[in-house]
Design a protein that fits this description.
Blueprint lengths: L2 E5 L5 H10 L4 E4 L4 H9 L3 E3 L2 H4 L3 E6 L4 H9 L4 H4 L5 E4 L5 H12 L4 E4 L2 E2 L1 H7 L2 E5 L3 H12 L2 E6 L5 H29 L4 H11 L3 H12 L9 H17 L5 H15 L23
Parallel strand pairs: 1-2, 1-4, 2-3, 4-5, 5-6, 8-9
Antiparallel strand pairs: 7-8
Helix pairs in contact: 1-7, 9-11, 9-12, 9-13, 10-11, 12-13
Amino acid sequence: MSRIAFIGIGAMGEPMAGNLLAKNFSVTVIKHRRLEPAARLQALGAKVAHSPADALKGCGIVMLSLPTSREVEEVIIGAQGLADSAAAGTVIVDCSTSNPESTRKLAKLLAARDIGLVDAPVTRGVQGARQGTLAFFLGGDQKHIDQAMPALRAMGDTFIRFGRVGDGHTAKIISNVLSYATVALVNEALMVGSRCGVEAKTLNEALMQGAPSKALESFGPRIVAGEYDPPRVTIGHVCEDMLLAQELAAAASAPTFMLGAAQEIYRLLNLRGHGERDMSMIAELWRPPRETSK
């Protein structure tokens, strides 16, 4: 069983790496900006490296779980990056929410060095990562996917195969923004009911029977209570993904009326300095300003 290098041990990456260790994979991780995740994984049996080049020693598969394509590019083509350090035959699996165009460019560069790249973004959130029940959207050459599958099966139970490299990342962006736009619609529905005198908590329960959705289930109670912490998905993250979606739509000449409306609402909140707040805070645009104690 090949040793796996895991780069990006944040909220998603740490439990993903933990599941690999639980399934008896040998794992090398790179120290996170916070020391605790690496220390916890080391206690479970992981080796800890200080750079991507160091982490690659003896590894045939590299898993990436990073915030954006910017970090992915830095790890792959930056100084002492994977492109220069990985041996021929290595497969890099990018579980990040990355820009598909960047993914394709990296795949082409790596292919010239006989290094495979699979895009494998995930859904089902931190809970799915902890439980080992993630769903993966897979893009890339089948031989590279086959090489990565034993590791992927240790972290998830659903695998949706797309065609070209980058298509998995395209699907992930679309999935994300569909969820974000639905939260905006959930908020609007609850606020209309509230303005009409309907008790919001009861309305939320009724909507879960008449028009249930993950967005309503996960964010409806936060909107009703006006309690948005800790953030699950930040407004800044929403804006980044929506910008990626609009770039995809523009390249395909595809109209995005609903997405555009939701994007402007989140962008307004981001402009007002709420980028680190949870996206359910969208409700504050419909509520009267809260009084502050003098």
